[in-house]
Design goal:
By secondary structure, this protein is mostly helical. It contains seven helices and no strands.
C-alpha cells in the first residue's frame, strides 16, 4: 500500500506481496463495496490457497453480512488448510491438546474452530456450537484463542432459551 493511503496496512504476517496487496485492498473495499472485497479476497485465495489470513478475511466478512452458510464453508476450508499445515490429522474432535504457547497454523486452526462455534450460534445451531466449545475446552484449556468469550455467549443464549 502507498504510505499516503488513508488507512494503515493490516499486518497479515508473512505473505507473498501479491496476496498481501489483495488483502489490503479488500479490507479497504469492504468499507464501501462488499462484493469487491469478496472478489479481492477470493483472488488472493486463488493466488495462494495456503495463505491462512485470506480465509479469515473471507469468513469474517460473510459472518458480518449474515451469509452464515458461506462463512461456514470458508471457515471449514481454512480449518482444513491450517490443520494440514500444523500436521494435525483427522477430524478436530481427535486433535491433540495444543502446546503452549500456541502459534502459527495450530493457533489459526483453533481460532477458526472458535469462529465456527460463533457462526453456529449465529445460525441457531446451538448443539454444533456446544460440541465445538467442548472440544476447545480440551484442545486449548487456557483459552488462548478466546473461546471463553464464545462459551459465555452460548451460556447466555442457553439461559435466555430456558427462561
Amino acid at each position: 500500500m502507498r504510505s499516503d493511503a488513508p488507512f494503515d496496512d493490516i499486518d497479515f504476517g508473512e505473505l507473498p506481496d501479491s496476496v498481501n496487496e489483495l488483502l489490503q485492498r479488500g479490507v479497504i473495499a469492504h468499507r464501501g463495496d462488499r462484493a469487491e472485497a469478496d472478489r479481492l479476497f477470493r483472488a488472493a485465495l486463488a493466488l495462494d490457497p495456503a495463505a491462512l489470513p485470506t480465509y479469515l478475511c473471507l469468513y469474517k466478512i460473510h459472518t458480518y453480512q449474515g451469509n452464515l452458510a458461506e462463512a461456514r464453508t470458508i471457515a471449514q476450508a481454512g480449518l482444513a488448510e491450517a490443520a494440514r499445515q500444523a500436521e494435525w490429522l483427522g477430524p478436530w474432535q481427535h486433535w491433540p491438546v495444543a502446546p503452549a504457547p500456541l502459534d502459527g497454523p495450530g493457533r489459526f486452526a483453533l481460532y477458526t474452530l472458535k469462529a465456527l462455534a460463533f457462526i453456529a450460534l449465529r445460525d441457531n445451531r446451538t448443539d454444533d456450537a456446544a460440541e465445538i466449545l467442548t472440544a476447545l475446552r480440551r484442545l486449548d484449556p487456557a483459552g488462548a484463542v478466546g473461546w471463553p468469550v464464545i462459551a459465555a455467549l452460548a451460556d447466555g443464549i442457553g439461559e435466555a432459551v430456558a427462561a
